[in-house]
Input
Amino acid sequence: MSSVIPIVHRYEATFLAFYVNAFLVETQSAVVAIDAALAIPDVDNLRAMLKDKIKKPLRAILLTHGHPDHYTGASHLMRGFPGDIPIVATKGTLVQCMARDEEESGYLASEQLFGAAYPRERQFPDQLVENGVIVEYDDVKFRLEDLGPAESDDDCTWTIDIAGVEHVFSGDIVYNKYHPFFHDGHTSNWLKVIDNCIARYDHRTVFHPGHGDDMGIEAFYWKRGYIQAFVRLLQELLDGRPTLSSEEQQQLMERMTRYLPSDRLAWLTLWQFDETVRRMREDGILK
Output
């Protein structure tokens, strides 16, 4: 166990209702960020936490996966801090960052969405690591586990020890009581990843998710139930057809909002809906 007791600071970005978390892990003399938000106003708030509250320099940014709301603000976050600040991630995360940047940056930066709040300068991961690696800052050890495709094309966790308790920065493997994102089409493997986490961790583990409050292992059971309910309902509504009408998509979302009595991130479920259905069929989770 490390002699340094790290402190975890959570920032929830709320610009345009993305409700995405970034974490600042305070070590003895510096700060390590886990993910980096997206919109410039949120990244500015994260920088203010660093400069005005914690008052320690940024040492590194560790990414959990390659979705834009988790990495796009990295370059803006690093501005003004001394030294070379690595962005640490797996090769799978880098590949998705680059693919998503090319695919989505024009849309996200549009007047209708982020406009001037979208970072025009973006920096991709520049320190690639593999499953099981440990990176260390001020005697605080961050252990990477690459879980493969789940919510995204490559989902990872970073784990630290705090007073003998595992603290797991779990990215988007499980949203804590927020509606999830099915677009990448790895739902079958996502359920396997959740089951593997349930088998591995116990009630003592603290999880810091990409969306929602800190949670325990019980959130994994809830998320598995949500995914299974969504797939069953979507299969029922499709009834062999290639897609749903806009009215049926709203019915899908209304019924899932009864499952989870919240509308937070509900819009993600219908993001590029036809493509989501096509990918879920390729995955085999939908017939």
Observations:
- DSSP finds eight helices and eleven strands in the chain.
- The mean pLDDT is 94.
